[in-house]
Amino acid sequence: MRTFLLSIAIIFSVFQVSMAQSKTESEVLQLSKDKWQWMADKNVDKLADLFDAKAKFVHMSGTWKSPEELEIIKSGSIWYKEAKVHDTAIEISGKTAIVWNRITLVAHVRGNDVSTEFTVTEVYQKQKKNWKMLALTFSSVRDTHQIKK
Fold first, then answer.
1. Which of 40, 39, 62 has its CA nearest to residue 51?
2. What's the domain of life for this entry (predicted)?
3. How far apart are CA 119 and CA 127, in angstroms?
4. Domains along the sequence of the chain with CATH
5. How far apart (Å, rounded) are the C-alpha atoms in residues 100 and 38?
6. Contact in structure between 47 and 35 (CB atoms under 8 Å)
7. Backbone phi, then psi, for 19, in 5-degree steps?
C-alpha cells in the first residue's frame, strides 16, 4: 500500500510540473504573438515594457539594442506590417524561454514593401513577475524550412 501511495504522489508531482510548464509555454507563446501585433501597430509603449533595456536585435542589415529598435519601429523606418506565423517551437529552461517562429514577414523597409521568409529566435527571461525579451534574431530561410521540435 505504501508503494502504491508513493507512486501516486510521484505521478501527481510529475503531472503538476508538466501542467505548470504547459501554462508557462502558453503564456510565453501568447506574449510572442502579441509582440508581432504590437510591432505591426507600432505600439512602442507595450514593446518598451517587453524589451529588456540591454536586449539585442539582429536584422539582415545590422544589430542594435532596445532604444534603437524602439526608435526604428516608432519612426516607421521598418514597419513590421504583418508576421504570418507558420510554425512555432518553444523550450523552457528555468527562468529562460526560447521561442522559434518560422514566419513570412511583410514589412515596409526603406520605402518598399517586402515579403521575406525568416526563422526568428526570441529569448525571454522571467524577471520578477514579468517576461522580458533579451534577444530577437531574424535568420533568412527558404519557405520550405521547418523547425524541428
1. 39
2. Bacteria
3. 25
4. 26-140 (3.10.450.50)
5. 18
6. yes
7. -70, -40
